[in-house]
User: Fold these one by one.
Assistant:
Number 1:
Amino acid sequence: MSTAILTGQPVPGSPLEGDLRSLGFDVRVASDAADAETLLAAVPGDQRVAVVDARFVGHVHALRLALTDPRFAASAVPGAVTAKPEARTALTRALRTGAGTAAPLPDGIAAAMESAATDVHRPELGALVATVPTDPQTRDEARRAVAAVDDEAVRLRTAVKSRDGFFTTYCISPYSRYIARWCARRGLTPNQVTTVSLLTALIAAGCAATGTRGGFVAAGLLLILSFVLDCTDGQLARYSLQYSTLGAWLDATFDRAKEYAYYAGLALGAARGGDDVWALALGAMVLQTCRHVVDFSFNEANHDATANTSPTAALSDKLDSVGWTVWVRRMIVLPIGERWALIAALTAVTTPRVTLVVLLIGCALAACYTTAGRVLRSLTRKATRTDRAATALADLADNGPLASAFSALTPRVTWLRPAPVLAFAGGAGLVGTALGNSYGGPVVVAAAALYIALSGLALVMPLKAPLDWLVPPFFRAAEYGTILVLAAKADVNGALPAAFGLVAAVAYHHYDTVYRIKGGTGAPPAWLVRAIGGQEGRVLVVALAAALLPATDFTVALTALAVAVALVVLVESIHFWVTAHKRGAPAVHDEGEPA
């Protein structure tokens, strides 16, 4: 239970007390500032507390945005201020300072908190009203302003993500927001909807695995239903302000699990019809994962860069001012809505091979478009990148003990500055060597050893140069590409499915690293990276297995490695996120680029 302290008796006829109780607050009335301080001291320290002016007039949703959003330690709108337990001390100190101002007490408290360097979130209200009238005339005007705006319509409209793809905006969100409201009124949580979305997608993958036309049609329909629920969980979170660190992690992780499980379902369904498309399914997962790490790396590199401007970015902003170009550019990148709609439609009317080939072509074109744009921005951008950005990129690189040891032994000299060149050269040499030779052989092991050295050299200097954000994507492409090529070269039943499982397990670890960094919780512990070998260690293990084992035993080795990596990273990751949630880690919600 949260507590709201009113600064006096509400004006007769005011719905304020009822509005606060509907938001989950226990309402107490203070006679003056000193009484408010006494009431505040009586509230248990582990509870949220709000101070609200008794003359407040405004929409319930304005109060909801100000007083119940779990993402912020302190929030305020005119006439109301709130603090979670971590900001209670700052609010208590500010209460005395704010009581001496001419402004309404909550506004004085908020101003005093900000003066004392406490961040106070002030939500965008738009058409919503939140004010403290000082006389009957302004009170009547405020009440008329409240009556003129449909509070629920605003709440529904703002439940939709502010930036999304064309398919999601025009084909899903117009009705999924009402599903979100239906869920909220029945007490369902975003995490429950996220879980149902995952189960629906897994059933869709199972239908695709049947290999029948009816199964493919059902799979396509269920995949779209899963996506509708995927949109609903985020809209439910915004509608009811049920944000959490655990929820953001589940939403992002399950999106990847759903899509990649569906690829596997397509491959299993094709196999039932006598067509082996495991290489295409694995290639699609590799390409999509590399696309995502390009997005993450670029954003982290420029997250807090100063003087962060470029002519390319200015041109992009100018194009966004022309309505039709916004949607064309969003569709070109093939975001999750367009991508899943394409996969669902092709599954229903064509074959798994056609579906995966078209998906690969579309994602490849999207990757070229987005990566080229980001390279141009980086080359023309005048920016100074921070130590935080360099640390994030190093964490995303996922170097293990072998590369780290080589890096530690190498002096920091300026000629090692082109880190992306070293990463690209090592990865291209490794994958090219695997492609150019038959299965197994010592030459691939030698290429893996060289790759380890270049991986270490790439991280000798801090990753602060304009294109250093390319290092993690090059490492991902090298590791995943090597596994794909060696499994394909083995040319035995089960090798590519085993490779699919290994890449999926490793990709989970890489995504988990991203979500921890984005959530502000830091990268996974060093012991975990060492335990699973780092990206270069896994490459060496796979290369040695191919060189030393016959193809059938190589499949067993890939399977064993996949199971081992999956067990270690899943156990540690689930424990971390559940523990962080229980400890009250800051709630987060991703409103960034479509995935």
Number 2:
Amino acid sequence: MSEPSPSATPLLARLLDLLADDAPAEDLGAVTSEARAAGVPAAELAEVERAAATALRIRGALRQHRRRELQLTALFDTAGDLAASRDLDDVLKAIVRRARMLLGTDTAYLTLPDEEAGDTYMRVTDGSVSVLFQRLRLELGEGLGGLVAQTASPYATPDYRTDERFRHTRNINAGVLDEGLVAILGVPLLLGSSRGGTGKVIGVLFAADRAARVFSPDEVALLCSLAAHAAIAIDTARALDDTRAALAELAGANAELAEANAAVRAHSAAMRRAEEAHDRLTDLVLRGGDVKDVAVSVAGLLDSPLTIHDPGGRPMAAVRPDGTGFAVDSMDAGWLAGTAEESRHGARAVHRDGRWICAVLAGQELLASLVLHRPDRLDDSDRRLFERAAVVTGLLLLLRRTVAETENRIRGELISDLLGDPDRDPAGLAERGRRLGIDLDRPHVLLVAEAAARERLGGAAMRYLFGGDIHGVSAEHAGTVVLLIDCDDDGTSAAGAARAAAAQLGHLVQAPVTVAGTGPARGARELAAAYAEAARCLGAMRVLGREGEGACVGELGFLGVVLGNAKDVDGFVAAVLGPLLRYDERRGTHLVRTLRAYFGAGGSLIRAKDELHVHVNTVVQRLDRIQVLLGRDWNEPDRALELQLALRLHLLSGSRGR
């Protein structure tokens, strides 16, 4: 008797063990070689190879997720370090050291303005080896840092030496060359000024590499969040210095000293309260709280109702000071966006119409708006507490979005596999979907989107799904972005979903986005066919000059009949020839037959009247009636093409026009 063939089951179990132990990628890949060497049958060997490939993808996604968590944990640790430190030198060194660690760059540094000299200087560096670079000074507007300070906006370059956006000087180029820096990211340290003013740049925080590198939006957002902490810490340190100076000046006057001491104690108590509140909010985030938990804490601390709204004005949380929730309508998106923009530019909370509003930011991106329903003024300590709550809320939303993006990336691999080869294993695809929370057997609307700003479209699609009430998944496929959106059997219209997505994605990308929709469809094969139809529709929209719009094949006229899977010929004929068909049926006339003869005669009235066996005046009168029913453009090239196609389809369907 021959020995039984080796089984793949132990090898699949081993893959799971290696994945659970976070084994190196080489160990996972070695399982396939081991199966091949053991003589596992071809069918089972293919299954082992697919399982190994899936395990490698999952390992990569998990490692990326853990790396993001480590970065955010380090950011929260930084907040604790800054809150505990009172020495400005220690604060600045901690900021720069943590910036270098968070972004994994070769060096990090921070520049501060020199009010007397009228320029900026290198205050703290970490990882720098060049004395010339460490002593570098910049005029306003010079280099990348000068542009950041001048515009109060972050800037990044993959290669500073060849980037013409910045004003290069011999002094700066010499320092950068001596340090060997290539890729540089700089973000402003913003501090709010007096009421009605704008945010003041009090410094610039940099991270730089000695090799070419493209900084991702998440890295820019992380450094901006750290810069927000840095600005608060510097402001606090300066406030303490001002307090000490005030105490020294008042030391000689007994009566005034008692009053000053009381004011200082009240100021110190308010600062301690703000710092304790900041630590409480940071600890809440680290313990896994959500947006509502932050709202409850802030409403209680400030003794006022608080609501949190997304960029579109929709409420995310609404609580009273006692922690109970209440119903609130969506805010006017235009008013809220304008007020949040004022808060963003001023780097502080603003008071409008009996409410305090503070923008929740990740870099320059608006994540949400905190709205404190309080008509009276906030003192400085409560205002700072409110502004710190916005910073912590931004960290929380950034963390939630990072997790959602990681999950969407794993689900997107399923969509790519489904669209690439739906017939390979429909049951396996459905099972993978169920494990990832996607029921492929439910009806879905499928959207295919494209934009000239292709590099920003994928991230915008994830934010579109994450930021609203839309349940779905996105994936980049064949140069486009595909969105799979849950819908009821009689629910979401493909055309409506396409138009809504085109508008929202265009807003997020800040460029026209074209979206083609189809569905509902369910199951691997139907969804793959729906994608093919949507891709054809997208190509037709491009040819028709409908960039920046959303549509489905049913809205493309005769092109929809040609491109669509449903081939609704009767619907197309009724839409194009309906007025003539109904007129002939009611009055016993021959308008459809006359129009067919006219086109068949190449537009010749003489040949058409011979075909119809009527007088030429009769043909003219019938064409006048056709113009009344169809409009003056009935004989224009595009409209005539539709009419001729509809006449041919009507004839082929077995119906005979009169």
